Amino acid sequence: MPDAPAEGELMALRVARAEPAAEGIHLFELRHPAGGELPPFTPGAHLSVRVPGGALRNYSLCNDPHERDRYVIAVKRDEGGRGGSVALVDGVAMGDALEVSAPRNLFELDPRAPEYLFVAGGIGITPILAMIRYLKATGGKPFRLFYLTRHAAGTAFLADPDLAGEAVVIHHDEGDADQAYDLWPVFEEPTKAHIYCCGPRPLMDAVRDMTGHWPENSVHFEDFGSDLVRPREDDKPFRVRVGREGEALEVPVGATILEVLRLHGHKLPSSCESGTCGTCRTRYVEGEVDHRDLVLTPAERETSLMICVSRAASDELVLEP
């Protein structure tokens, strides 16, 4: 079996398949070039993938975690994003090599739950599909899935047999808010189920609001920050320094502090790169921060920021060396 890469290292895998999974969504199957087993993963895990151009982007694994010979990811081509998905979909073909991290999991399926409620919005089906495959392969506990998309043509895995059956509701709202699926009857009465939700920020916010009366440890969210890291119309470039005497580095619109510091040789810990895990928390000593994470409390934001998503509201930001 190939050795798992050390923390922060990447392994080169071969693209065994690269094909459309739905309108605007591309599927990639990755295998070790020499064959054999890959490092294991658990349901809900993701890979960090170096896309053409050099940036690292996170994508959830959607195949059965019992499979050790391949990783499968599905990527939504997002013209309004930071360019990673476009570079991957347009620039990578079958037979190419991709550098990827070992699988990591910030969205673990809790084995203690007696049953599960899954809510997936659009491409958010990917980690949840791995969970469903795992449960079915193990003859596991009962679940219900609510898979919400805009239209059938853009629904990945629509014909997948693991998404068939009475436990699965697939709903298309055709982009009309009046046709949105009403989840309130699902969450009105708390049960012993654990809820797993992955999808666009508005969906997750809605589920969070509807489950405020559920036990906190039974509601789980996954978001690789498509909305948190997406450039905003009023974004402006700014400078960042590591220490007051450090070099002033330009952070352009569309790039993150984390990416710029890495390009200039700084080795920094990170995981989700979406402002949801807390790994890249960094202290700052000067400047005003435009906080965009989902982790820090108001008090913590007085001295710290998440450099994977947050920007400066001032012309310059000085980080603690």
UniProtKB/TrEMBL annotation:
The keyword Flavoprotein applies. Keywords: 2Fe-2S, Flavoprotein, Iron, Iron-sulfur, Metal-binding, Oxidoreductase. PROSITE patterns: 2FE2S_FER_1, 2FE2S_FER_2, FAD_FR. Residues 238-321 form the 2Fe-2S ferredoxin-type domain. GO terms for molecular function: 2 iron, 2 sulfur cluster binding; metal ion binding; oxidoreductase activity. It holds the Pfam family FAD_binding_6. Residues 8-110 form the FAD-binding FR-type domain. Gene3D superfamilies: 3.10.20.30, Nucleotide-binding domain of ferredoxin-NADP reductase (FNR) module, Translation factors. This is Oxidoreductase. It comes from Muricoccus nepalensis. The lineage of its organism: Bacteria, Pseudomonadati, Pseudomonadota, Alphaproteobacteria, Acetobacterales.
